[in-house]
Specification:
This protein has 17 helices and 13 strands. It is an alpha/beta fold and about 450 residues long.
Length: about 450
């Protein structure tokens, strides 16, 4: 396949660029300018003001590729399905693909690279990371080797968007990148063109973010990836983080627009409110419209495991409608309702895995959150349908999580805690769920 320009390739793929004005609801505020937006047959493309890159607002997060079990019993990525989904995404205008060396037990970059390498290199953007946050002592040699392996997996000599992975503030930044010389290496790679845009993904508190922003004049962050969704916007720090980046003209990459799927499977009472307003729209579409309505957002990543996820998200963006002020107010109300439910703030990122004692941490949290959302929570023996709810939770728990991997096997070793980007006190949450399970079994309320 010849080396076509990006615009020529998109035309071949069936998404010719048609420049359109953005709806008034998507205009930046006074004194600020967002990323210029185009639409290619429905897929909005945001122009990175620093590089001129035209990036699809929907980005593909490659942390949740479909898995299969091979002949030896090992879980491996289903390459055929990855190829199929990449083909479908590209043919509908998606051109940004985000992975990392640690995703899917180290398999994601290779699988993503195989799928993308069938297309002209100029037709897509690669985002990957220096994931040295799990190393006991992050060394220069290991970091350089990680960068070079990434180039090899993608069969390329440059990365479009390279991230220092999972930063929470200046202390970790200094330890992982400054003191060992890796930052100098990355800055040199940017100067040489092997890194086109250098930034970081942020997983921390507001003060740590301020520390990283204070370094912008020194290092010039080309972009920053933050967790942003309407719940974090209205009940957390997302609005603050976004505005700090917007005020500096730094393009924003969004991770966890669905909070690990929690905003596509909201509590029943909230789901009913969404369906009253838009019966034909998926609940997830509201979360993506929220992200797409913010002009500084370059792309919003979605970890689409199945074709139906991809198709639904494409439907949202190919027919994209920025949220009105009234719809924003509605999401603020929904965020308040969602935050009142006793959910575990797990996004199923798998960073806590593998557990040395075999506990299925994200699986336990996913099951519990699902039961809360569905109203399958027994609260007292006097509760209506108590025995039915009790049986439903215990039965579904045993079906979802095999007994040897359930919460009662946690010994509070705390190895998982520093790995969690959501700062969840994992052993305490596992203990809370185990106590609840035990109270169901013993009927002690």
């Amino acid at each position: 396949m010849g080396d076509l320009s990006r615009r020529d390739f998109i035309k071949v793929a069936g998404a010719a660029a048609v420049t359109l004005g953005v709806a008034a609801a998507c205009k930046p505020g006074p004194g600020r300018s967002g990323n210029e937006t185009e639409v290619s047959e429905g897929m909005p493309l945001r122009t990175n003001p620093n590089s001129g890159d035209k990036v699809s607002i929907l980005g593909y997060g490659c942390m949740r590729w479909p898995m299969v079990t091979d002949e030896s019993g090992k879980e491996v990525i289903d390459q055929a399905k990855v190829d199929e989904m990449v083909d479908y995404a590209i043919s509908h205008g998606v051109n940004y693909f985000d992975s990392a060396p640690v995703y899917l037990q180290g398999q994601s970059e290779a699988a993503t690279g195989k799928a993308l390498s069938r297309y002209p290199r100029s037709s897509y953007y690669i985002a990957t990371k220096m994931s040295n946050h799990r190393m006991f002592e992050p060394t220069y040699e290991e970091g350089v080797a990680m960068f070079k392996r990434s180039l090899g997996y993608y069969n390329t000599d440059y990365v479009d968007y390279y991230l220092m992975h999972n930063l929470g503030g200046r202390a970790a930044f200094n330890t992982r990148f400054v003191e060992n010389g890796l930052l100098d290496f990355l800055l040199e790679q940017r100067r040489l063109g092997h890194i086109r845009n250098l930034g970081f993904s942020f997983h921390g508190q507001r003060d740590g973010f301020d520390e990283m922003m204070a370094l912008h004049d020194t290092y010039h962050w080309d972009f920053v990836q933050i967790q942003m969704n309407y719940v974090d916007w209205y009940t957390g720090d997302a609005e603050y983080l976004y505005n700090e980046l917007d005020s500096r003209g730094i393009p924003v990459i969004i991770m966890e627009p669905l909070l690990g799927g929690r905003l596509s499977d909201v509590p029943k009472v909230v789901a009913e409110k969404f369906k009253e307003r838009e019966p034909e729209a998926s609940i997830a579409s509201w979360a993506f419209r929220f992200c797409g309505s913010k002009p500084r957002v370059l792309t919003a990543l979605s970890g689409m495991t199945y074709m139906e996820h991809l198709q639904d998200n494409l439907k949202t963006f190919l027919q994209f409608k920025p949220l009105t002020d009234e719809e924003m107010d509605f999401l603020k109300e929904a965020a308040g309702l969602i935050s009142k439910y006793p959910l575990v703030a797990c996004t199923n990122c798998q960073y806590c895995m593998p557990c040395p004692y075999g506990i299925n941490i994200p699986g336990i949290f996913k099951h519990y959150n699902g039961c809360v959302n569905d109203g399958i929570i027994a609260q007292s023996a006097e509760q209506k349908d108590f025995r039915k709810l009790r049986r439903a939770y215990l039965t579904s728990y045993d079906k979802a999580i095999e007994s040897i991997r359930q919460a009662d096997h946690c010994i509070s070793c705390n190895q998982c805690v520093p790995r969690c980007p959501q700062s969840i006190r994992i052993p305490q949450e596992l203990r809370r769920i185990d106590n609840y399970v035990e109270s169901l079994k013993q009927e002690t309320f």
